[in-house]
Amino acid sequence: ESEGSRERPAGVLLDPEGRVIDCNDAMLRVLEYPKDRLIGEDWFEVGCPTEDRDDARDAMADAIARGTYARRHERRIVSSSGRVREMIWTRSLLRNEHGRPVAACAFGLDVTEQRHAEAELTRHRDRLEHLANERTAELAESTQQLARSERLAAVGQLAAGVGHDINNILLPVRCHLDAISAGPNPDIPAAVDA
Predict the structure, then answer these.
(1) Confidence at residue 28, expressed as pLDDT on a 0 to 100 scale
(2) In this predicted model, which residue has the larger pLDDT, 23 or 178?
(3) Contact 106, 89 (CB under 8 A)
């Protein structure tokens, strides 16, 4: 990847009240504003989604008061057309000769597409896990059915074997009873039938 094809970080410089002092071309592209319309504007009104404004404003005021900013931060911005972009920011405070914060500087990379891709991958992963769980449950049910079928087949084989063995034992007994029934005594056939 050549140096010219890399996306440049969007940069903005704010005064302690949050007004835009300066910004680079990458920031103008993300915000979809001409520079002359952005300079001097309240950053939080122009660049922050409505629901994030108070939080962002409080974070900067707190940083100015404490004299330190959390260096890396993820926060959304909104363009003039209303497109919300996910940004990862590197922030710092600029100080005067007495060490007092006089401006806040932030450079951000647009990670909106990356976040969408991550969300899509998460949805696909969740769907695949769901399908795998369904298939695993189906396989477990099939395995249980197969085990039941095998048990029934084993019981059937056992019953057939026992029946065959009993018939093998009863055949000579039956033959002897038939021989006795064929004898001369008329009372014997009724007793054999009983």
Answers:
(1) 94
(2) 23
(3) yes
- Interatomic CA distance for residues 47 and 57, integer angstroms: 11
The backbone torsions φ and ψ at residue 184, rounded to the nearest 5 degrees and listed phi first, read -75, -20
pLDDT grade for 188, boundaries at 50, 70 and 90: confident
Of 13-22, 95-104, 179-188, the least confident: 179-188
φ and ψ at 4, to 5 degrees?
-70, -25
Instruction: List the 10-14 sheet strands across, edge first.
Output: 20-23, 10-14, 101-110, 84-95, 72-78
76 by Cβ neighbours in 10 Å (0-12 / 13-18 / 19+) ranks as: middle
- Which of 7, 14, 52 has the alpha carbon at shortest distance from 30? 7
Q: Is 41 exposed, middle or buried (0-12, 13-18, 19+ CB in 10 A)?
A: middle
Residue 7 three-state SS: coil
Q: CA 134 → CA 42, 124, 137, distances in Å? A: 53, 15, 5
Beta carbons of 177 and 189 less than 8 angstroms apart: no
Residue 6's pLDDT band, with cuts at 50, 70 and 90, is low
CA distances to 5, 43, 59, 82 from 55, in Å = 34, 13, 6, 19
